[in-house]
Please model this.
Amino acid sequence: MESTGCFSYFTICSKEESGAFAPEAMTAKLGIRPFSGWKMGQPNPEGGGCYSNSRWDACREGSANAGTQCMNIVRRLKS
Model:
C-alpha cells in the first residue's frame, strides 16, 4: 500500500497590485532564504505571460507530525 506524506510551509502572497512586494525585501526582513518566490509582473518561466501576483515561499517542513511541522516553522519565523 502506498503511504501519503504531509508537509507544511509558510507563504506570503499578494493578489492585488496595491499589495505587490519584492520577494527579496521579505528575505532581507525575515533573514530566511525562500525556496521559491516571484514579483508581480515578472515573466513566468513556465509560460503563460507574467505573474499576476507576488509570492514568497519558505520554511518547508516535512515530518511525521503536522503539529511539529507548524511549530518548527513558527520557531524559524520568530528567531
